[in-house]
Every structure is written in structure tokens, then in C-alpha cells.
Amino acid sequence: MDVLDQLGSMREGKMSRRAFTKSLMAAGIGVATAPMLPRGASAAGQQGTYFTWGGYDIPELFGEYVEKNGELPNFAIFGGTEEGLTKMRGGYVVDVAHPCNSGVPRWISTGLFQPVDTSRLSHWDDVMPELVNVQGNVVDGKPYMVPFDWGQTSVTYRTDLFEVEGEESWDMLWDKRYSGRLGSLASGADAWWCGAIKAGVPLTDIASEDAFEKIAAAMREQRPLIRTYTDDTTTLEQALASGEMVAAMTWNSSAVVLKSEGVPVKFAKPKEGALTWVCGMMIHKDAPNLDRAYDIIDSLLSVKTGEFMINDYGYGHSNKKAFDAFDAATLEGLGLSKNPIEILEAGHFQIPQTQDWETRMNETFEQIKAGF
Amino acid sequence: MTDTSTLSETGTPSKGASHLSRYFYKSPLSRGYGLLSPTLLLMTLGIVVPVCILLVMSFWTRQGFGFDTTFTTANYVKAFDQPIYMALMKRSLYVSAWATISTVLLAYPMAYYVAFHVHKNKMMWIVLMTLPFWTSYLLRVFAWKVVLGYEGVINSFLMGMGVIDAPLEFLLYSPTAVIVTLTHAWAAFAILPMYVSLEKIDKSLLEAATDLGDGPIWRFIRITLPLSMPGIISASFLIFIPTTGDYITPALLGGPDGMMIGNLIQLQFGAVNNWPMGASLSIILMLFIASIGLVFLFLTKLARERIS
Which UniProt keywords are listed (chain A) (predicted)? Predict the structure, then answer.
């Protein structure tokens, strides 16, 4: 009997209450058992989940994935990799997560991730081997993190509002002339390391007691000058665009995005060197959609995605073929090169640290941000 | 339980029912618990158990990725020793106290007006007053960021009028911004309970007060205010308790100087990765709120006795 018929007969008083309850029950059982019905290989099937920063959740990066599966993967967003890791340690399961090189050994040691079967990735042969072989990533000949993007953390500043004295330098973010008009990323995974560069601490030495004090002193000195600390790059970009901030610690993309909007900004090349990093994808050991997990990774490695990353975000990509579409001058303008190691080593490359160091660093940095 | 079973014996016996169901229907206590049981179960699972877990965890310490489960009060000592924790606690209480006071002060006239001076379509007035709360909390907080921002509504207006030359920077990223936003965001929770208790006031009492020579001000102080006290108290609690631990508002609008204890607790469970410390801070926060609540209750009771 059709639902409308039933409702009609109900209204006319022709249907007994019992009959109505019976059909309600049938509907209930139908709804409850629907998930058990065999599902066709239709596009509406379960999609993989990608746990990443805001900004990586856009269709431009998933052309191949959509072509294959009909829809975008699901996205879960974290503010920083440490936050993401804590969430997963608390039992949150995703298919693919997006850590950076300095976190990889610690991420592996949690036992939450599985090594990557590279034979399942069609673009694997084009991936730059230098990026795969970052410290701690390859265990027993198998990589855990598939490199995807690489770049720098440096200072983006308004060329019309910020007067550079001498060379570009990290001192720009400690410049008292612009007190209250400087911004910073809130995550210690960037800010603390930049503080180390400013304080003149070699990154190989960052775990020492002396280094801790020096960096903490530098961060304390900077804190009253900072308008706000945020993990949200949009907040920094909007503040730079409006002139609320004249300089801020950002990644490559903020400068590129602002430039494309016609805001007069520059991504500084600090004389002390920028902070450099490689990020990539790791697969959760209990990934519920393993096939889709490999689809997500493969799609991110594709040349088209790479071209978008380079052109629109200004990040380096791990697929060497992605660089073929750009001439050397364009790449240099973006602070990139076909030879990633050249760029990464010209800056200060992040080095993996112990969990205790991470906790202590985050704790100290949070205290400093709160004014202590 | 023996009392109640004898009590059920005295009730009229119902034919055909077993002893157990007769006991169940006749004993007020078991009937009460029977009615409560779904909620009680949910409360036990959803509140009592997690609080117990929190309490136990607060006596542990962090060790690498895991926990050292030996009993220690180190976290509590640390919370009272290092200045950051108590300073943020103080700031949280300060911010939410101001938010509570200003919300209640601003919402009381609204509730008063609807309760005493609106005679038609009261329901529509109530719905209209709660209309802003049909949007999500996060959206409301974000809207304030747009209002208070550097190129925000207030700054654009003042600059357009020629009152100021450069945008006022103190509007956003300060504890004041947090207080303003919380005051707006929680207004509905103040209006509704106060409206209910004002609405319940017997109008003949007001007439009696007038007959006995009280002017409008004394009538308000001696009759309306004490009788609406339950509404004011519940509104204050409804706002004070959740705002103390609020973390979205300070995170978006507080800036470096507007950080509150809620943000610190969230960080312990997130980036700092020290769950036992986060648990201790949560417990301390609960104790603080509970003791302040008790003091508040005591004071209002005292004040009410004084007035009447």
C-alpha cells in the first residue's frame, strides 16, 4: 500500500490503528536494515577520509580521485599535526593523514600507521626519491609517509607598509616599530623552530637546555608585539590584506594567494634562512577504506594536482613531472626549484624530536603565548 | 526499602497482578525510580562515569605517549604553583562574571517588559527575542569578529563618520571583546528563566503594595525583585557555569591577552598532549565554579531574608 493511500485512509478513518502501526513497523524495519542491503559499486559508496589542514580540502587536488570514485573524499580538518595525532591516539580513525617530516618517526612509533605499498601507486616512479628518504621515514625498506608538498615557513610582509632595514631577516617579526601589527602561526611546530633560527640556535642542537632557554627568551621578547597567534592562515591573510598586520609568519601559500589578489606582499628570504619542511600522507593501520586511501594518495601525487599546488599555492610538489610546466624564472619567483634538496638545504630543515621534547616545547610555548 | 514495601501492603490489592508488579505500582519510591530510570541511566553513563574517569586520570602523570598510573597529586601542585594556571583561572572567572552581570542586567528589562506590558502575542515576542539564537553559536561568535574587526562594522562606521582616522585596534583581540560576545551569545538563557519567574508574579501583590503606599521604585524592590529572584539566580547559573569554560569565543576573539582556562584545557588534550594535566585543570575548574555557586546562593538567600 502506498504511503499516501495509507495516510488518506487514516484521515478518512478507514484504517484501523493496528494496521497503521503495522505499516509503521514495516517502515521501521526497512529503514533499519537498509544499510545491510548489498551496495552496488555506485559512486555513492563509502569515500575515504583525509585528515589534513584547511586549504587541502578543495576539489582541485582530487581530480583523479573524483574521476575514479565520482565524488570527493571526506575531509577532517586539524589546526596542527600534534592536534591531529592526539585525536587519532584518542581513537579517531581516518584513512589518510597529513603529517610533516619532523613528526614522522614519532607518528610511526605510535603504531597507528601502516607502511605504504608503493606498487599500488601509479605515480610512485615520478616521486622525488630525496623527499622519500627523509630521516626516519623508511623503516625496513618501506616508507610510511608518501611525500606530497614541501616548502618554507618565512615572513610575508606588506611591501608598501613595512620598511625593510637592510636585508630581509627574521628580525622583521621582532621589529618594535610595528608592535601590535605583526602576526604569527600559533603552532609550535612552526613558531618555535623559527624562534630557534632567530635566536641563532642550530636546529641540530634544538633539544639542548641552553637552546630551550635562548628560544624561550626570543619568543617572550616577541610576544607583546604580536597582534594574534592563529592556526588559521585565512585570518593572517585577511589581516595582511587589510593592513591590520604588516608582517606575519606564514607558509608559501599565503604570499601567493595575496599576490594573486593584488595585495602588495612579498615572501621574505631571511638572511638567516627560512624554515623548510616536507609533508605527506600516512595511512592509518585500521583504514576502513584502504583502496580509497591509495586513491587519495595517488590523486594527490598526480601531475595536475602538482601543477595546481605550484601555481596557485606556491608549494613544492613531490612529482618531478609537475615542474615541467613551469620555466626556471617562474619557479625562482615562487622560491621553488626542480631540485628540492637545493631549496630545503638552503633553509633550515626540520629535524625529528622525541615526544618529551614536543610536549615540553608545546607547554612552554603555550605559556609564553599566554604571557608567562 | 522495607518501609516502602510495608507501605505497598497497605494499598488496595489489585486482583490478578503478581506480587512484584503490585509492589512496583504501589510503592511510590520504586515508581519514582522507574520513571527516572531512562534519564538516570543516561546521566550515569554520560556524566558520572566520565567525571570519575577524569578524577582518576587527574592523579596520573604523562609519560611519552602514555600515562604513568601511579597515584600522585603532582598535577594539582603544579596547577597551584605555576602562575599561568591560576592567572588564567582568575581571568576566566573575571570574564564570565562580567558576562553574567551584563547579560542579566541587559536581559532583565526585556523580560520585565514582556511579562508586564505585553498583553497580546506574548509567544511571538518570546520567539522574536530568541530569534538570533536560531543561528549556530560559532556563527554568532564569528559575526562579532566581523562587527569588532579592523575593517569591521564599528570601525568602518566611525571612520565613515570621520570620528577616527585609523581603525580602533583594541576592539578585537581583548578580554573586553570576549565579554561583549558572551553577553550577546548567552542572552536567551537569561531572558527565558527571568521571564518565566516575572510572569508568575501575582499582580494583586503589586496592587496591594501600591495601596499600602509604596511608590513604583519601592514596589519593585520589595515585591517584584525578590519574587523574580529564582529567575535571576537560575539565569546567572545558566550563564556563569558554561561561559567560564568557554573556549571558542576567546580562541577567535581573545587574542594573546584574552586566552581563558578552557583554551588551556583544550591544549592539554591537544597539542601539549598532557591529558592528566588537562583532567586536573577540569576538576579544579569544576570545584571553583561549585564553590562560587554556593557562595552566590548563600548571598542571595541572605539578601532575600534581609529584604523580606
Answer: Periplasm, Signal, Transport
